[in-house]
């Protein structure tokens, strides 16, 4: 199934694609009128709308790729493509915000004359277009970093339209041409502040940070696992997010010689899933090793402490036994 087929099949994708077309067409209207009236606020809004279109396109393709099944090359699937789209969009937003503020500061020092006739009507029309986008995303109840990035784009663009409307009234009736760059600075600051949480969320996923909602519970999780009958020790418990709503966990277990491995694995997995860990990979080693192939990790070391020390060294060197 290609991208077009996916959009035609999925109701939410069709609505997002429809809003993308409306947004794309109105972007040219704002660009043309912004250059004609010399309004930095309207040009900034048009540039931001252009990035909205890119964010919508990336978001659509991200949702499409996220639906692909895992394969031999991408064994975890394509869920992180949406995270990558969200991170990319957030970086673009920061660049847009910085460029707008720099240009606006130059205009504050030397405010140009702006033709404010009909500027309010154009900015109001842009406001309505963005309100439609907000309604589309709220009605569909879409989730994910790439969706969050697109929503932030549209929300910041809506605030930008409001800012241009205010500045157009100030210039039209009071001749305050300084209002245009001042409102542009406000747009840039709003964009920058609104995107910081998204940068933090997506970068933490890409860097495989322990999920913030799980981190305070890890000591209790380890305590519960150690309390399972037959578990002697738990080591190298790692949790991270594969995507925005999928948590992966791995751990090394040292179990008593008479411990029932399958029962222990079941209880440990059950405990981890209680705290939102969807996929678990557990390595188990008996406390007293029996004779066996030297290549097997279960027989690699006779001494439990030596085994734990080796795990620590492996973690420091970036590899895990």
Automatic annotation (TrEMBL):
Domain Cation efflux protein transmembrane, chain residue ranges per copy: 19-207
Cellular compartments annotated: Membrane
UniProt GO MF annotations: zinc ion transmembrane transporter activity
Keyword set, alphabetical order: Ion transport, Membrane, Transmembrane, Transmembrane helix, Transport
Pfam families the record matches: Cation_efflux, ZT_dimer
Recorded coiled-coil stretches: none
Keyword Transmembrane helix recorded: yes
A biological process from GO: intracellular zinc ion homeostasis
Domain of life: Eukaryota
Domain Cation efflux protein cytoplasmic: 221-284
Keyword S-adenosyl-L-methionine set for record: no
GO cellular component: Golgi apparatus; membrane
Topology within the bilayer: Multi-pass membrane protein
Parts of the chain that traverse the membrane: 16-36, 42-61, 81-105, 120-140, 147-171, 177-199
InterPro entries named in the record: Cation_efflux (IPR002524), Cation_efflux_CTD (IPR027470), Cation_efflux_TM (IPR058533), Cation_efflux_TMD_sf (IPR027469), Msc2-like (IPR045316)
Protein family membership: Belongs to the cation diffusion facilitator (CDF) transporter (TC 2.A.4) family. SLC30A subfamily.
NCBIfam families from the UniProt entry: CDF (TIGR01297)
Protein name: Uncharacterized protein
Organism expressing this protein natively: Guillardia theta (strain CCMP2712)
């Amino acid at each position: 199934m290609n991208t077009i087929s996916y959009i035609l099949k999925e109701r939410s994708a069709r609505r997002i694609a429809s809003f993308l077309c409306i947004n794309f067409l109105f972007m040219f209207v704002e660009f043309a009128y912004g250059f004609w009236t010399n309004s930095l606020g309207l040009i900034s809004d048009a540039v931001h709308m252009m990035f909205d279109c890119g964010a919508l396109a990336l978001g659509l393709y991200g949702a499409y790729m996220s639906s692909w099944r895992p394969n031999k090359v991408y064994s975890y699937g394509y869920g992180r493509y949406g995270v990558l789209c969200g991170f990319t969009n957030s970086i673009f937003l920061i660049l847009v915000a910085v460029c707008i503020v720099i240009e606006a500061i130059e205009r504050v020092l030397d405010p140009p004359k702006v033709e404010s006739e009909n500027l309010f009507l154009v900015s109001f029309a842009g406001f309505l277009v963005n309100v439609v986008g907000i309604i589309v995303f709220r009605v569909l109840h879409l989730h994910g970093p790439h969706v969050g990035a697109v929503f932030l784009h549209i929300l910041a663009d809506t605030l930008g339209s409001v800012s241009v409307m205010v500045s157009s009234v100030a210039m039209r009736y009071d001749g305050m041409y300084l209002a245009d760059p001042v409102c542009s600075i406000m747009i840039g600051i709003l964009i920058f502040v609104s995107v910081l949480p998204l940068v933090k969320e997506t970068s933490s996923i890409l860097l495989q940070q322990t999920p913030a909602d799980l981190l305070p519970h890890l000591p209790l999780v380890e305590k519960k696992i150690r309390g399972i009958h037959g578990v002697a020790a738990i080591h190298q418990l790692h949790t991270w997010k594969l995507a925005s709503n999928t948590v992966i966990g791995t751990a090394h277990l040292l179990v008593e010689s008479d411990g029932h491995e399958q029962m222990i694995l079941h209880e440990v997995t059950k405990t981890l899933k209680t705290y939102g860990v969807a996929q678990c990979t557990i390595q188990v080693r008996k406390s007293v090793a029996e004779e066996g192939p030297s290549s097997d990790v279960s027989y690699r070391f006779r001494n439990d402490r030596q085994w734990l020390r080796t795990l620590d060294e492996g973690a420091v060197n970036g590899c895990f036994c």
